Amino acid sequence: MGLTAKEHSPGVYFIGGGEQRLLATRNLTPGRKVYGEELIVIENIEYRLWNPSRSKLGAAIAKGLKHNPIVPGSKVLYLGVASGTTCSHVSDIIGNLGHVWGVDFAPRPIRDLIDHVARYRMNISPIFGDARQPREYSLQVPMVEVLFADVAQPDQAEIVVKNANIFLKKGGYAMFSIKSRSIDVGRDPVEIFSEQVKVLVARGFSVEELIELDPFEKDHALALASLV
Ligand SMILES: C[S@@+](CC[C@H](N)C(=O)[O-])C[C@H]1O[C@@H](n2cnc3c(N)ncnc32)[C@H](O)[C@@H]1O
Domain 4-50 classified CATH 3.40.120.10? Predict the structure, then answer.
């Protein structure tokens, strides 16, 4: 049986044939891979397979995220962009009418992001900076519709709020991963997830979804909240 691509949400696809159902995005840079992922052409369109074990956003979609606010044309601030594995799929989804500003404070991954990913994708602006000090990059980043955070820090929710105060449009969305073990190894992950989410609720966010990422990422969840 031939492969087909079925749209999950704007710009995100499930590629299937028989029993298989693989997550993918349409490649903005045909012929070019980012992290060794497979490229598949269906009806003259090239897709890049999206490995949910390498990406918390990918894992959340594979686990049934109902609403993905990152769509074609979105402006996204991405905290903890690293070398761009997930960011490259965000770049595919938003396309050339969208833009993603990716912040990381580790020099090596930012250099890899510049040399191997952003150089070929005009919709990514890498920023070498500390997400705890958003004023430092406030001149480089405009107001955005989506704030995505994957910094794996115990004060992740506070970092999201600090950045949202400066960059997130009213009606915009925050998506952030919560790694319970980076907060407290001894406690029940579900308790930690709801505590982190409360930090956003206190700032005026309404939580839409909280998806646990097992088995792709153990003890991780991804929260989606809107700024009402
Ligand atoms: C789990 S990795 C991110 C993986 C990436 N989001 C992906 O899916 O491809 C976490 C990243 O957050 C970065 N990070 C942690 N704390 C940070 C901070 N305060 N400011 C900026 N980056 C930070 C680390 O350097 C690391 O690259």
Answer: no
Q: What is the CATH number of domain 57-227?
A: 3.40.50.150
Task: Tell me how far the alpha carbon of residue 150 lies from the centroid of ligand 1, in angstroms.
Answer: 6
For residue 164, pLDDT beyond 90: yes
Q: Hey, what are 22's tokens?
A: 């693989």
Model pLDDT for residues 89-131, shown as the tens digit of each residue: 999 999 999 999 999 999 999 999 999 999 999 999 999 999 9
Calpha distance 49→71 (Å, rounded):
18
Establish whether residue 136 lines the binding site of ligand 1, counting it when its CB lies within 6 angstroms of any ligand atom. no
Considering the chain, tell me which residue range(s) the CATH 3.40.50.150 domain(s) occupy: 57-227
For residue 190, list its beta bridge partners. Answer: none
* pTM assigned to the model: 0.95
Q: Is 175 in the pocket of ligand 1 (CB under 6 A)?
A: no
What CA–CA distance (Å, rounded) separates 191 from 182?
14
- Contact at 8 Å (CB) between 79 and 163? yes
CA–centroid distance, 107 to ligand 1, in Å, is: 11
Tell me, using a 6 A CB cutoff, whether residue 88 lines ligand 1.
no
Q: What is the sign of the dihedral through the CA atoms of 7, 12, 18 and 19?
A: negative
